[in-house]
């Protein structure tokens, strides 16, 4: 039997990036007034409503969790204990639908504000209970210069050999993160009555690396069973679609330097399997646009997502 060497996820990301740098990618997606790309360390913010998921600490971790500000937003890194933070709607507006929100950041950092809290607040305003997942990350150097160098290396190297099917390798590389996301589903179901959530209407939305985790969680099967999923500027490689695959919403910019040039195999696979899929390909937006307000039509992804949820009956209280 051929022996396959597991390719680390950051190498897989790099294969998509080719010669595009991190600063270039975000310059395409962040509004001009927020383009301060300096990584400025900040004190770890208070997170009084964060709930530990009980999946353990990151074995062998040498660096503690730390935070920084970049592009006008807050980022976490060296996360060693996974948590979920609830953002609950006004009970008078609650639909019973819930969404686990998985920020991105190359599995070395998490865009907690632009792709986490801001998304969750917007969902709660629509009557959807949102839960921001702070999943465990790959370790990076404690000091900021060392961290900056590690990020630059991740976004400049390419895989040593052609990667095997991307989701195959990602599934093997994300065991800890999949455990974290499964624990989030389990926690929400256990406390569904308290949070006024229908345990059969819990979905997941992910951004970039968070989109990879969303897809990996879905394909892993077992007890997560998302009612719907959303892939926001994640890879669109073909996968083997489960027979009971949930409805899929996808948003990507045509000028995304990471994932816009590898075809749309994921969309084709979902369609071929006869499963519901909606795909928005925006002319401009770059990578990482999230909840940033800007002049490109990619800003409309959230409104489109909410309309899609409504079309699937997820904004109406369950009967």
Could you characterize the architecture of this molecule?
By secondary structure, the protein is an alpha/beta fold. The chain has one domain (9-38, 50-311): 3-Layer(aba) Sandwich (Rossmann fold). It contains ten helices and twelve strands. Strands 2-5-8-6-9-10-11-12 form an eight-stranded mixed β-sheet, with helices on both faces. The protein has a four-stranded antiparallel β-sheet with strand order 1-3-4-7. The longest helix is centred in the middle third of the chain and has 16 residues, at 175-190. The protein is globular and about 55 Å long. Residues 1-28 and 158-164 have low confidence and may be disordered.
Order of helices and strands: HHEEEEEEEHEHHHHEHEEHEH
The helix count comes to 10
Using the alpha-carbon principal axes, give the shape.
Answer: globular
Runs in which pLDDT lies below 50 for 5 or more consecutive residues are 1-28, 158-164
| Overall mean confidence score, pLDDT | 87
What number of structural domains do the residues give?
1
Cα separation of the termini = 53 Å
Helix content class = 25-40%
- Give the DSSP E fraction (strand runs of 2 or more residues): 15-25%
Give the full name of the CATH homologous superfamily. Alpha/Beta hydrolase fold, catalytic domain
The CATH architecture name reads 3-Layer(aba) Sandwich
**Secondary-structure class:** alpha/beta
**Biggest sheet: strands, sense, closure?**
8 strands, mixed
Count of individual beta strands: 12
CATH topology: Rossmann fold
Protein name: Alpha/beta hydrolase
Pfam families: DLH
GO molecular function, one term: hydrolase activity
Organism: Sphingomonas hylomeconis
């Amino acid at each position: 039997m051929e022996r396959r060497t597991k390719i680390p996820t950051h190498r897989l990301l790099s294969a998509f990036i080719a010669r595009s740098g991190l600063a270039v990618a975000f310059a395409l997606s962040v509004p001009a007034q927020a383009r301060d790309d300096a990584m400025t360390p900040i004190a770890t913010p208070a997170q009084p409503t964060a709930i530990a998921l009980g999946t353990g600490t990151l074995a062998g971790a040498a660096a503690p969790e730390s935070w920084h500000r970049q592009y006008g937003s807050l980022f976490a890194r060296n996360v060693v204990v996974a948590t979920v933070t609830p953002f609950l709607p006004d009970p008078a507006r609650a639909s019973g639908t819930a969404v686990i929100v998985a920020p991105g950041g190359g599995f070395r950092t998490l865009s907690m504000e632009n792709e986490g809290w801001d998304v969750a607040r917007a969902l709660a305003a629509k009557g959807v209970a949102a839960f921001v997942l702070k999943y465990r990350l790959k370790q990076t150097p404690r000091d900021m210069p060392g961290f900056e160098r590690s990020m630059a290396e991740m976004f400049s190297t390419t895989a040593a050999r052609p990667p095997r099917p991307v989701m195959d390798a990602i599934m093997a590389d994300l065991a800890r993160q999949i455990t974290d996301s499964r624990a989030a589903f389990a926690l929400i179901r256990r406390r569904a009555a308290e949070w006024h959530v229908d345990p059969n209407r819990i979905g997941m939305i992910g951004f970039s690396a968070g989109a990879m985790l969303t897809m990996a969680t879905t394909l892993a099967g077992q007890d997560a069973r998302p009612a719907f999923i959303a892939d926001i500027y994640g890879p669109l490689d073909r996968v083997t679609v489960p027979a009971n695959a949930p409805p899929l919403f996808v948003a990507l910019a045509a000028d995304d330097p990471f994932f816009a040039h590898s075809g749309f195999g994921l969309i084709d696979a979902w369609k071929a399997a006869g499963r519901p899929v909606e795909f928005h390909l925006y002319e401009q937006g770059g990578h990482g646009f999230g909840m940033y307000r800007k002049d490109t039509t990619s800003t409309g992804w959230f409104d489109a997502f909410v309309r899609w949820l409504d079309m699937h009956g997820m904004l109406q209280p369950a009967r």
